[in-house]
Design a protein that fits this description.
- There is one protein chain.
- By secondary structure, the chain is of the alpha/beta class.
- It has a domain at 6-159 and 191-221 and 275-284: Rossmann fold (3-Layer(aba) Sandwich), CATH 3.40.50.150.
- The protein has ten helices and nine strands.
- The strands form two sheets. A seven-stranded mixed beta sheet has the order 3-2-1-4-5-9-6, sandwiched between helices. Strands 7-8 form a two-stranded antiparallel ribbon.
- The longest helix has 21 residues, at 6-26.
- It is globular, with a radius of gyration of 19 Å.
- The mean pLDDT is 95.
- The structure holds S-adenosylmethionine.
Length: 288
């Protein structure tokens, strides 16, 4: 059953990511390869450079945090935030192991950044904003903590037809769980910010200027559909939450059904490539 309030929704999200933190962290090399080009574009759009102070929202295990830390250098600073203490602990450890003392972490909700500190040069969010039930609230918070002339940049999934694997997963999980089809644009869902123009509109409402969107094709390249499903199963995907209500046998039947359908993306010469498109939206906190 769907949680009743935004707070209950966020409690469920926090718990899901706490539980899957280790799995997500373990997948860092695959995530890094998948998102290398989009991450470079994200950091470029936020104009991140040497010596800057950067806020990383919904940082997860910190793959993009480390990329930001390298860009700002020893004289800069990155504050990585996330709603899940367990996943943020991995970001902290990963930064420590990489010798990046310029990374700090703070557990907080993107919609309610409990930060006294303002004047950040840039704020970014990679694949986290769509999980917020009130993304406009989160953008207002990013806007609040930026300095005039500071840049915000966000990566989210684009519309359902350009991300067919996510559609296959959701439709199949709902069918096996006896649930009706879900509106992909329901707030807090993986594809919720993929509606054309929606996120740009939120950026403008939050007070950003020079708002622009770029589409980035970022296919998921793995040895097989089974590897993709392994990735999904070890993350806090809503698919996992839906199937958790089934008995183990019924759950396995659902995963097998998904695998069969996802094999359509097997490449003739070997390997598997799941089509996937992201939106990079960015804007600036007005000067003066
Ligand atoms: C798909 S992961 C992305 C993590 C990381 N940015 C990356 O790209 O590897 C989504 C992250 O969003 C976080 N998250 C979800 N809702 C949030 C909220 N309301 N406030 C802050 N973080 C949130 C989750 O805990 C999780 O770490």
């Amino acid at each position: 059953m769907a949680p009743a309030s935004p707070e209950q929704f966020k409690d469920a999200v926090r718990q899901a990511w706490d539980e899957s933190a280790s799995g997500w962290n373990h997948q860092t090399p695959a995530i890094h390869n998948w998102l290398a080009a989009p991450t470079a574009a994200l950091l470029g759009a936020a104009r991140i450079g040497l010596g800057m102070r950067v806020l990383d929202v919904a940082a997860g295990a910190g793959d993009q945090t480390l990329a930001i830390a390298h860009r700002v250098g020893e004289g800069g600073r990155v504050l990585a935030t996330d709603i899940s203490p367990a996943i943020l602990q991995f970001a902290s450890e990963n930064a420590h192991e990489a010798g990046l003392a310029q990374v700090q972490t703070r557990v907080c909700d993107a919609e309610d950044l409990a930060l006294d500190e303002t004047g950040f040069d840039a704020a970014v969010c990679r694949l986290g904003l769509m999980l917020c039930p009130n993304p406009l609230g989160a953008l207002r918070q990013m806007h609040r903590v930026l300095r005039p002339g500071g840049h915000a940049a966000v990566l989210v999934f684009s519309e359902p037809q350009r991300n067919p694997c996510l559609g296959i997963l959701m439709t199949t999980a709902c069918r096996h769980a006896g649930l009706g089809p879900r509106d992909p644009f329901t707030p807090g869902g993986l594809l919720s910010l993929g509606k054309p123009g929606l996120l740009e509109d939120y950026f403008q409402q939050a007070g950003f200027t020079g708002v622009a969107t770029e589409r980035i094709y970022a296919p998921f390249q793995l040895p097989s559909a089974r590897d993709y499903l392994h990735f999904v199963r070890t993350s806090a995907s809503p698919i996992v939450q839906i199937l958790n209500h089934l008995n183990p046998q019924a759950r396995e039947a659902a995963w097998e059904d998904m695998e069969e359908q996802l094999e359509v993306f097997q490449l003739p010469d070997g390997g598997w490539e799941g089509p996937n498109e992201l939106l990079l939206v960015h804007g600036m906190q007005p000067v003066g």
